[in-house]
């Protein structure tokens, strides 16, 4: 996915939900910090953007987005990419303080969206916590491209809640392979 495509999804999602405070979770959140030309292919391979709203306690807005521009929708069939409406709590493995580190960019002065993106290290920790093959490959590519720092990842991993002690251990083991 490219920034321009993500911007198209964000505009549509904000129009559908009537809310400009949108949060991009998952892989495409990396586009908040880097242009697609600066990213390794593994970081932009997904055709979906996980879209949440900062004020959506009952997940109504996320469901509206999912129904209108989600997978297999006319939007998806027309554009080749789509939004997955998710709730903020979907991102289980975010380090404490992640909301204070959100990144934002303005699409254009007339756009309805005020997008927020996970800071790249917070995103990487979240992906390492999920530990799916595609997530591990994405983080490996970001580390190899020097777009995230292993020491900072370790610091962010330490900010995971106590309920994630096992996940912290798994992440630290993954990171250790880069420090040898």
Report on the structure:
The structure is a single chain. This protein is of the alpha/beta class and 180 residues long. It is 43% helix and 12% strand. It has a five-stranded mixed sheet. The radius of gyration is 16 Å and the shape is globular.
Spatial arrangement of strands, main beta sheet: 3-2-1-5-4
What characteristic shape results from the CA principal axes? globular
Distance between the termini: 33 Å
Helix content: 40-55%
Number of helices in the DSSP assignment: 7
Strand content: 5-15%
Q: Number of domains in the coordinates?
A: 2
Tell me, rounded to a whole number, the average pLDDT.
92
Radius of gyration, taken over Cα atoms and rounded to an integer in Å:
16 Å
Q: Return the structural class.
A: alpha/beta
Largest sheet: 5 strands, mixed
Search tags:
single chain; 180 residues; alpha/beta; 2 domains; five-stranded mixed sheet; 7 helices; 43% helix; 12% strand
Brief characterization of the structure:
This protein has helices at residues 3-17, 60-69, 74-79, 120-130, 133-144, 150-157, 165-179, and strands at residues 21-25, 48-53, 82-85, 103-104, 114-117. With 180 residues, the protein is an alpha/beta fold.
